[in-house]
Specification:
3 copies of one chain form a homotrimer. By secondary structure, chain A is mainly alpha-helical. Chain A has one domain (2-189). Chain A has 8 helices and no strands. Chain A is globular and about 50 Å long. Chains in contact: A-B, A-C, B-C. At the A-C interface, helix 1, helix 2 and helix 4 of A face helix 2, helix 6 and helix 7 of C.
Chain lengths: 198, 198, 198
């Protein structure tokens, strides 16, 4: 689980670094956005649950991964394409892993089913929201896309499993599979949510 | 008090949903902004005071109210007008309720008079600030209007009452009445604060 | 140290108030930005480290200083120039002081060297990030400048001193001197960091 969590951090840090490059930030800005995107969701989760200092500050590997990714994106900036299938598949895996990690931590903190579902979504999408706010864009997750919805469904399934006393490893596997699967399916079919008539 | 707090959440969630519709967000974006606006101020208050996990995550009714409001705003989006007198009066009531709730919690956490006053304002206006930052607008509360000022005056009165050992119910009633009253008066007379010459 | 911390708060509050004036905010907006910039970095630090309620809410002098600065900036808005050498030198001093305060608090909270370095940078630049996000600008610290980098180097030196068991007063003096010195040197020579090719 810890290794998968680092992979999720790695993938999200890439997306942060790439957004920084597109926004013409300098080397430091690229590293900051890599860090903020990679560990931001987990930071919000830990601070909200009172698990301070957050895991991302106590275990140095999270920050090391993000800083190395930031340096790598800076060096390779004109060779990485965020539309690459591999980057987007990796992002979908990160989404599932973080949703499961958020739901698991929320369930042990005594939250109810709706709280668990919300915390799954916040952990999985919080880093991206911070990333977009820092470069003054409406968070991608708020705009037409089947992204956070996948984390909400995955988180809700975790909450159901938790109430049914399903073992942690099984709940985690179900949440990752469903969240990542739904996201990949949405990418493949171009699914989105309806927009209200203003 | 708890029931009134849910009413404040309900009203603020409506304002978040309406801003999301105007920003052309999808169904999920509308729900997210309803949740963020409805519970955001209380979340900041609880996290800052170390009361974690925040009340909005432990008591599911806050999130249920916000999600239902988000769905309702989505369905009725072309029938609700944020300029309606009813919506604006409800918003003024929410402002007073949240200012009192913030001041009360700050006073039991050991903050001094200025801290209590600040926490009243942060609790009452924090959700709206998160809402505006997410859709990349300068927070309405920072621009010319007699809005946060009403919460600061209400919060300062609570701090004075607290030092004079006025009973909690009376301090709460005074804060709600003054904050909501000042806000309604400002709406009625079009009051604002002066702007500096640049 | 406490007195120097208040000086840092004072200087950062000025920068917040001046940005508010440039963004044509009203009196309340000026005070809010003065407060957010003056105490924002310390708030993030304390909340992330679980030191709640934050020092800035428990010790009223921080908020008093910020509010008075906000009022002063409002009154003197057309007489203060943010490009003044004195304002910029004071800002560099605030940067060093806050970096040292963040590193010191992080070291006592059990963070490792990278965590200490990050917390120095977050404490020193967090207030400015909040200030810029509130007026919908890409945070100045993320754009080409040798600003946060100075705090990272100062914070890393503190972490090294901490591991070598250098006395607190000496580590603090080194961090302030190096951070402020690097910042002043960068201002004098117009140093910046490289930007990636998009």
């Amino acid at each position: 689980m810890y290794f998968i969590d680092l992979i999720g951090t790695f993938v999200f840090a890439i997306s942060g670094g790439l957004v920084a490059v597109r926004s013409k930030l300098d080397l430091l800005g690229i590293i900051v956005l890599a860090v903020a995107t990679g560990v931001g969701g987990g930071l919000i989760r830990d601070v909200a649950l009172g698990a301070t200092p957050p895991a991302a500050f106590l275990d140095e590997w999270y920050l090391i991964v993000c800083v190395v990714v930031g340096l790598g994106v800076f060096v390779l900036s004109n060779k990485i394409n965020p539309e690459w299938r591999l980057v987007r598949i990796a992002d979908a895996i990160g989404l599932g892993v973080f949703a499961a990690a958020g739901a698991a931590k929320a369930s042990t903190a005594g939250l109810g089913p709706i709280g668990i579902t919300m915390m799954a979504a916040i952990t999985a999408t919080g880093g991206g929201v911070i990333r977009d706010v820092l470069v003054v864009q409406i968070p991608a997750v708020l705009q037409r896309d089947f992204y956070a919805t996948a984390t909400l469904i995955g988180g809700a399934l975790f909450a159901v499993c938790f109430m049914l006393e399903v073992p942690l490893w099984a709940s985690t596997a179900i949440t990752i599979t469903v969240t990542t699967g739904l996201r990949l399916f949405a990418m493949w079919r171009g699914l989105g949510l309806p927009v209200a008539r203003a």
